[in-house]
């Protein structure tokens, strides 16, 4: 396995993996298929964009990648809240919602600092 460069990279990676694992056990009805597709796209994108930000070629590039990650984590949080409302077994989803809120705050803070410095 590739060594992670910082704790936040590791958190995003683990969060994405946890989302994937939980999506695997969701029912396969039409509505869950749509939600699964959307949350998987966002869950894999948030960490990937954060990874790209780590090798940004400029402050603007870094800010853009962090902004995309922030948008994606907000979308993930939305889909998690829907899953919690419509699922019977949602203990793991509640934990993922909590983590998504924390990650959202962290990314929001980073993005805010980037925006102020431009």
From TrEMBL:
Superkingdom of origin organism: Bacteria
Spans through the membrane: none
Pfam family, one: 23S_rRNA_IVP
Protein's UniProt name: Four helix bundle protein
Organism for this UniProt entry: Ancylomarina subtilis
